[in-house]
C-alpha cells in the first residue's frame, strides 16, 4: 500500500555553473524589452553606492575641518548635508528595490506565459513521459528562482560590486597604508566564503531533493485520498510523511548552521580588519602623519567594504540556483512542438468542404508502439512492444465501424492515432484519400467529434464546457443539448446552464457527463464521430437516454465507435475484433455472430446466455463489467 517515495527527478537536483554565458545571453533577451527599467535601476544603484562613500568622507571633513574651527554654522551645514545624504540613500534604495522587483515580476510573467503556451503545444506522447509535478515546478518555482536572480541577484550584485570597487579605490586614494592594513584580512574572507559556498551548495541540493520528495508524496496522497481512507492507511501514510518531513527538516537545519556560522565569521574578520587598521593608524599617528578624521572615515569605510563582500557570497548561490532553473526552463521551451500546431488560415472553409462531401477514413497497414527505446518514436520497437499490428480498415461517409475486443487490445490506441495524438511507426491513415500527416491538425480535429471514455469537464459552468467545441449562442446550446437529451441533465442541475462544476467536472454523474459530452460533440456538427464509450455502469434511465442520444449522434455521419454497448455493435456496418493489437475477426454482427469465434463468445457472455438470434433483447443488455467487450 505504501508506495515508495517518488524520488525527485535527478535533473531537479542539479546545480549548474554560477555563470553560463549561453544562458545569460538568452535571459538577456527577456530583459531587453525592459531596458529602461534596468537603466533606471542601475542609476539608483550608482547613487546608493556613491552615498555609501559620501558618508565617511563627510565624517572625515567634519572631524578634520569643521570641528577645529568651532564654527557652529559649519557643523549645522555638515549635519544638513548628512541628512540630505541619508535622504538620497533612502530614495536610491527605494528605487532600486522597486525597479528590480518590477523587472523581475515582468520577466517572470513573460516566461510563465511562454512556458504555458509551449506546454499546450507539446505532443501528448511527451506528457506520457513527464510527471505533471515536474512541469508545475517549471512554471512556478523555477520561474521564481529566476525572479530572485533579477531582484536580489544580478542587479544588486552589480551594485555590490560597484560599491566594493568604489570604496576600495577611495580607501587606497585616501591612505594606501591604512587601506592595505584593512585589506590584509581579505584572503581569509575569500577562504571563508569558499568553504561557505561549497557547504551551502550541497545543502541546497539536499533541500531541493527532499522537498521534491515531500511534495510528490503529498500530491500523490491527496489525489489518492479515497484509497488511503478506504484502506485505513492514514497511520502508515502519516508515519511515511513524518520520515520525509524529518529528512527535510534535517537538511534545512544543516543549511541554517552553515549560514549561522558564516555571518559571525565574516563579522569577526571585519573586526580583525578594524583592529589591524587601528594598530597601523595608532602606530603611525604618534608621528602625526594622519588625521583623526581619516581614521574615523576608515572605520566606516571598512565596515561598508566588507558588507558587499559577504552579500556577494550569498549572491553566488542565487546565481547557481537561477542558472540551473534557467537551464530547465529553456530545455522545456526548446522541446519541439507537436507537428501542425500553427492555425490554418482557411480552416473553416476546409472543414466545411469536408463536411459537405462526408468523411472517409482509411487505415492502411498501421503498426504502432507507444514506446520504442527511451522515448524516441522513430526507432523500431521490439516485437513485444507493438500495441497495434497491421491494422487496416475503411469507413465510407455515413457508415460506421465498431471496434471491440478485450481490455488492453488497442481500441483506444486506434482513435489516438486517428486524432494524431501519436504517430504510427508504419503504415498510413488517410482521410478522404489524404494522409492525415498532410492535413493541418486543426482542420483534422475540427472535422472530428470525439467523445472520450474518460470524459473531462473543466471547473466552470456547464455552458462553457459544452461551448468548448463551438461558439454557440444560447439557442444553439439549447438545441444541441435537446438533440441528445442533455437538456434533461441541465434541467436536473440546480443552476441549469450556469451550474458551476467542481474541479475536473465534479458534481455530475458519469452518465450525465456522457450526455453533456454528446451535446459538446454534436454542437460542432462533426462529419466524423469518434466514440470511446465509457465502461462504467449507469442507471437504466440514463442508459436509455444515452442509447437514444447515440442514434441521433451517429445518424448521417461517419463514425468509429469503441463499443461497449451492444446496440452500437449490432447496427455497425463493420465490426473489428481486436486482440493483442491485431484484427482477428471482422464483419457485420450477423456474420460474426454466426462465425463461432471470439466475438460470438463475448457476445454470448455479455448477453447473459440470451440466444444470438434474439438480438433485440440482447441489445438492451449491458455487458457485465468483468467481461469487457471493448
Ligand atoms: P480498454 O478497453 O481497457 O480501454 P483498449 O483496448 O482501448 O482498452 P488501449 O488503451 O488502446 O486499450 O491500450 C492498448 C495497450 O497500450 C495497453 O497494453 C496499454 O497498457 C498500452 N497503453 C495505452 N496507453 C499508453 C500510453 N500512453 N503509454 C504506454 N502504453 C500505453
Q: What's a concise summary of this model?
A:
This protein is an alpha/beta fold and 630 residues long. It has 23 helices and twelve strands.
Features:
binds adenosine-5'-triphosphate, 630 residues, alpha/beta, 6-stranded mixed sheet, 4-stranded antiparallel sheet, disordered C terminus, single chain
Describe the structure.
With 630 residues, the chain is an alpha/beta fold. The chain has helices at 10-13, 21-31, 35-69, 72-121, 124-129, 132-174, 176-183, 186-223, 225-230, 234-285, 292-333, 347-357, 411-418, 441-447, 462-466, 474-483, 486-492, 510-523, 540-554, 566-571, 589-595, 598-606, 615-619, and strands spanning 361-368, 388-395, 400-404, 426-431, 434-435, 448-451, 460-461, 500-501, 528-532, 558-562, 574-579, 582-587. The strands form three sheets. The protein has a six-stranded mixed beta sheet, with helices on both faces. Strands 2-1-4-5 form a four-stranded antiparallel beta sheet, covered by helices on one side. Strand 4 and strand 5 form a beta hairpin. The longest helix is centred in the middle third of the chain and has 52 residues, at 234-285. The two termini are 30 Å apart. The model is unreliable at 1-11 and 609-630 (pLDDT under 50). Bound molecules: adenosine-5'-triphosphate. The site of adenosine-5'-triphosphate has 15 residues, from helix 13.
